[in-house]
Amino acid sequence: MRIVITGAAGFIGQNLSVRLVELKLGLVTGITRDTAEPAVASALEAADVVVHLAGVNRPVDPAEFAAGNTDMTVALCDILRRTGRPVPVIYSSSIQAELDNPYGRSKLAAEEALIRYGEETGSGVAILRLVNVFGKWCRPNYNSAVATFCHNIARNLPITVSNVEAPLRLVHIDAVVDAISTLIREGVLGRGQVAVSPIYDTTVGEVADAIRGFADSRRTLDVSRVGQGFLRALYSTYVSYLPPEEFSYALTRHEDPRGVFAEMLRTSDSGQFSFFSAHPGITRGGHYHHTKTEKFLVVKGRARFGFRHIVTGERQYITVEGAEARVVETVPGWVHDITNIGDDEMFVLLWANEAFDPEAPDTIAARVTE
To answer: Per residue in 276-289, pLDDT tens?
Structure first.
């Protein structure tokens, strides 16, 4: 399949081009502003499907809307008509096509030109009326508040929020790319609008606050629920705007004669992660919990875990080698400690089911061996 993408150098075009290559759906040819007219015509004439992403959304002169959106689309349809083949077209329109403004009118006129083309040639035409698209590689300080906020906050630059309550409807770039990829794979049938979901309804203030929180998490270690839904998409977008020199950051190390301890991150409802080391012969721990529980993973060295039931006095000892990839779990009501019984420094990853609260630590000092 020969897939032609207009606007291939743009935000959606770059993401789509990468995905189509990954999916091996066909030979992808990109058309950009720098593509010469003969090459544009040649690519379109050979196309089996066209993804029409090119357009104008922030011109110097409003008259450019018609030229960059409507006229360009009409010219594209004329070239495809001349092929004598039904070449399907997937068009990235905008919800502003429903509004009476220069941009909206130009997008609506482009949609109508495509519908006419489809009716005359029998070609499938899919129109994606998109809300604000966000994600990696979107141009900041242009027409995306999300891109601007992410870019500036990642560089410790100020952002401007005129109205924190201003509504914002967003769709993530992956959803857009998935929708287009599915249309290419399954074929464009019929002519009309195709919905892209999920759409996230939020406000400018909520987005700005969330992104500020992502940046602050390197200092506070508190991470929000970024594993699903809108926050997952927004967090990945923010991280994609980090400059390369900010790809790493230092944790606070607490070092004493026993070894090193450092927290990695804290969650609001799923505990915290940290690591520690211990020199040969050193024992760490020596306490019990009533509710808190932990998981220990020795990644280097040889450890002996000791346990004692605080009521019955029953004891249990477990020896673990770093190469085993074996988790040892602490149990409420049992005193526990860990001793480095190897010859080298021992390193251990630790997860606790709750973030440490110095006002209610649930950590009572005691010895395994009395």
So the answer is: 999 999 999 999 99
